[in-house]
Amino acid sequence: MEIKLWVSLIVVSAIMTSALGEFGGPLVKGFYKESCPLAEEIVKHNVEVAVLKDPRMAASLLRLQFHDCFVLGCDASVLLDTHGDILSEKQATPNVNSLRGFEVIDYIKYLLEEACPLTVSCSDIITMAARDSVFLRGGPWWEVYLGRRDSLKASFAGANQYIPAPNTSLEGLIVNFKQQGLDIQDLIALSGAHTIGKARCLSFKQRIVQPNMLQTFYVDEFKRHSTFRRILRSQCKDSSRDNELSPLDLQTPAYFDNHYYINLLKGRGLLISDNVLVSEDHEGEVFKKVWEYAVDQDLFFVDFVESMLKMSNINVLTGVQGEIRGNCRFVNI
User: Where do the annotations place substrate binding (predicted)?
Assistant: First the structure.
């Protein structure tokens, strides 16, 4: 495991200078070097403790950044509770009874407030926690740009509109990512986050009943895909099991690797929105990249980091915009 982690570091270091320069924008490296020098270490240590207690938490913290950035931007709006005029994004359909990790962020924020009051933003905590979660599961490490500030509002409607559903078509995904300034390669690379984590039966019920030819790019001669669906069907027999969980990557569910793409080529992506990367790609551009990632994990890691840097810069608040919240769940009084 240790060797694998160091290989990840070496792979990504080759692109860090150019990628950070391109996607940093108004954010900077070492933003808290003077104002809160232990900020990144505090985040890293407590993410590690949380993931040791609950390995699934790594995927949850990574997902938290996706669900934050895709609504108003990377501004920690997803962390706000319903209060006053604010209707929490946590209650939106893609998030309710699904999004996790809020208590981990709360505790990290508490420690940072003790060390450096009103200095480290909740949005930067999300960004650091997502990076550390990927690394702790065997994925790449990258240096994050920091200096984000926190929003003064949430968007319940935006969370319902802009976070892709698990049954979204390929065309829908492309449009959705384009709205965030992300391209097709970003879509394919960031979809690889589904190499860790789990999904509820409710999220992939439609996947169970879809015909073979909608799932794969070739005839299922050996019934591998119908067998896969039978496995899923046994886990999700009826509506009483809607909240039962299944790994997004059945092969290596605990590791951040390229098996997600290998699974797609075998017709074994859990969600419909995973499988459409190969089943609805009529031009072949997406399938070609899926194949490249399936055979070259290092390439996937490099592109994943680049796309994460790009995503984490969506509509960020900096300077005097927004605020630094004292409590991530509420705007300051």
Answer: 164
- For 247, the 3-state DSSP assignment is strand
Residue 67 falls in the annotated catalytic set: yes
Return phi, psi of residue 28, to 5°. -135, 155
pLDDT band at 5; cut points 50, 70, 90: very low
Of 142, 163, 184, the last residue of a domain is 163
Residue 270, token pair as written in the block:
């859990």
- How far is the C-alpha of 115 from the C-alpha of 65, rounded, in Å? 24
Q: What is the pTM of this model?
A: 0.87
The catalytically annotated residue of 67, 225, 259, 282 is: 67
DSSP 2-45: HHHHHHHHHHHHTTHHHHHHHH-TT-BTTTTTTT-TTHHHHHHH
Tokens standing for 273?
């929105």
Q: Which residues are annotated as a binding site for substrate?
A: 164
Can you give the CATH number for the domain in which 150 is found?
A: 1.10.520.10
Per the DSSP assignment, residues forming a β-bridge with 245 are 200
The span from the CA of 193 to the CA of 189, in Å, is 8
